[in-house]
Amino acid sequence: MTVPIIIDCDPGHDDALAIMLAAADPAVDLLAITTVAGNQTLEKTTLNARRVCTVAGITDVPIAAGCARPLLQPLSVADDVHGASGLDGPRFPEPTVDVVPEHAVELMRRILVEHPEPVTLVPTAPLTNIALLLTRYPECASRIREIVLMGGSTERGNRTPAAEFNVYTDPEAADIVLRGGVPVTMCGLNVTHQALATPEVVARFAGLGTELGTVCAELLTFFASTYLRLWGMPHPPLHDPVAVARVIDPAIVDCVDANVAVELRGTHTRGATVVDPHGYLGRPANARVAVALDREAFWDRMVAAVTALGARTP
Ligand code: RIB
Ligand code: CA
Fold it and tell me: How far is the CA of 88 from the centre of ligand 2 (A)?
């Protein structure tokens, strides 16, 4: 069964590979790419989505720009992680893939209303667009099969000691999504840090002998330099494609049911995801929480996607 999905992203190195996986894997049907401010400004994340689609030959998927800032707090980009462009490393050609004029939330709503079956949303960025969709068009909730997001963590953070970047950037949006009643699967840092892009992985992309394979190797090489400089990690975790992989084959990402709450008021912990698999707080489970990754299957699907796209582009 091919699962219809929309990816909501802030390219971003890992978002870029998530787009490629979503566009090429036969298990999913990518209906749209929507962008949001996060890793970089909306202008830059949208330009980067166009760049990725151009270099990957993804020409049949509409791209729509969404929210330029979080619901309440000012935007704080991750230029320390992804660079000034948001996609530093490779040199990209002028994009030939354009955006559609609709706002991301309007495009998502139209697709949800018109598509013959419920659609899975795959946010790999701050949840501002998704929260706005659920708030402005609550009737769309029944048309969403599930929300499989990259964000949060069962353990520590990566933007503060307690909070992961996507949730920290817009905690109110994450709170709205987690309390919105739509089935949510959370792929947090605890599982995405199992998707380490080792030199062997980078060599698989470089060894494809295609322009796209080389671009992926260059993206991962830049990402590796960032993780070594900022966190002393020799291999970077490729966060966002893990959420896509969960939709492609749930067996690749093991999950447990748990209550997940977003801390909105903590002086030191705002943006933390408080995950309670043992029910200490007596609250019902409101999410499936990813806990383990089949690394071999994950990387095989990722490399197969880039191979397929590379074969399509001249
Ligand atoms: O914390 C990792 C997440 O923040 C990823 O989605 C990355 O692209 C950044 O958006
Ligand atoms: Ca992202």
Answer: 14
| Ligand 1, residues at Cβ distance < 6 Å | 10, 12, 14-15, 38-39, 124-125, 150, 158, 164-166, 239-240
Per annotation, catalytic residue among 115, 235, 239, 278: 239
Ordered mean pLDDT values, 10 residues apiece, the chain (314 residues): 97 98 98 98 98 98 98 97 97 96 98 98 99 98 98 97 98 98 98 98 98 98 98 98 98 98 98 97 97 98 98 72
CB neighbour burial string for 227-252, b if at least 16 within 10 angstroms, e if fewer: beeeeeeebbbbbbbbbbbbbbeeeb
Active site residue 13: no
Ligand 1 closest atom vs CA 165: 1
The tokens describing 161, both together, are 């000691």
Q: How far is residue 256's CA from residue 186's CA, in Å, rounded to a whole number? A: 10
CATH code (residue 42): 3.90.245.10
CA distance linking residue 101 with residue 98, whole number of Å: 9
The dihedral through the CA atoms of 83, 310, 27, 201 has a sign that is negative
CA distance 275 to 290: 11
Tokens representing 127 are 């949840």
- What is the value of pTM for the model shown? 0.98
What is the distance between the alpha carbons of residues 87 and 78, in angstroms, rounded to a whole number? 11
Encoded tokens for 70: 């979080």
Give me the residues paired with residue 254 across strands. 292
Closest by Cα among 168, 190, 50, 184 to 130? 184
* Residues of the domain holding 271: 3-311
- DSSP string spanning 256-292? EEEEEEE-SS-TTTTT-EEEETT-TT-PPP-EEEEEE
- Output the pLDDT for position 1: 83
Q: How does DSSP assign 133-153, residue by residue? A: HHHH-GGGGGGEEEEEEE---
SS3 132: helix
Q: How many domains does the chain have?
A: 1
